[in-house]
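Weekly structure sync, notes
Attendees: PL (lead), two postdocs, one rotation student
Agenda item 3: pending single-chain targets
PL asked that the sequence for the first pending target be pasted directly into the notes so everyone works from the same version. It is reproduced below exactly as submitted, 316 residues in total.
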Amino acid sequence: MAFKTICLFSGNANLPLSEAISRASSIELGVISIRRFSDGEIFVQIEENVRAAHAFVIQPTCPPVNDNLMELLIIIDALKRASVASITAVIPYYGYARQDRKVSPRTPISAKLVADLMQSAGVSRVVALDLHSGQIQGFFDVPFDNLYGSDVLVEHIRTRVGDKVTVVSPDAGGVERARAYSKRLRANLAIIDKRRSKPNESEAIHIIGDVDGTDCVIVDDMVDTAGTLTNCGKALMDAGARKVIAAASHGILSGPAISRLNASYIEELIVTDTIPISEEKKKNGRITVVTCASLLGEAIKRIHTGDSVSSLFTGG
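Predicted structure, written out during the meeting:
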């Protein structure tokens, strides 16, 4: 029996993305059986020979986060016990990333716990797209490649804006990301100063920068309940913006997100396909999904061949 040098497997979190990555990389998805016992326990069996191969596992830890995370850990363990040479976890969306530090006494740093779990399971390398904070890479003692969603979002944004453009960061923490977008779009930069009263609720207070008479592009790593986004959209229009669109790598879109978008000044929300979005949500009419499959597929090939991954970045 011939031995594979590279194999690509997918969990159930986002099969359409995994299939698109397979096509983009010209690497067939491996045969894997994932079942659940009646009590909910997950059972995994690798259905082909992977001995001494470099295995890649595609599994964003998106909602349902705990199920998808546990499935990823069990797939990693199954591959390790099947004698693969190395295991790279391709996690387009890294769940628990917002819990990257202690925000108050007696609270966990769950992003670090998730990193420990993956390493204990046997992961050799991790690939992610637009981590919520770069410090999460330091939670791992194995190589970590953080790719940039701007590489697939910028080209689409260019078709949606005019000659006067302002890229807007919805908070101080996103300034570096917004600056990268503004550089590539040759646009001005603005920052929203906001105050958050409690989790998943925010209020835009002040705009730092001039947005009057410009097309504004709010950029963020994720959109969850869309509270921040819609508040920012109103503040920008009140300040004289011609129109407001938004771009984010991860469209979580939980809870009241869709109804808030429908009632907002946001003309369009552009997201990548790291998280599957239901057809019902797409019918909203304001959500555009662009694929990151080619970017992830190229990264997988370069990691396997030992080529540079950083040269993928055209400006992140």
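Discussion points:
- The CA atoms of residues 158 and 185 lie 7 Å apart.
- The first helix runs from residue 15 to 25.
Action: rotation student to compare against the earlier draft before next sync.
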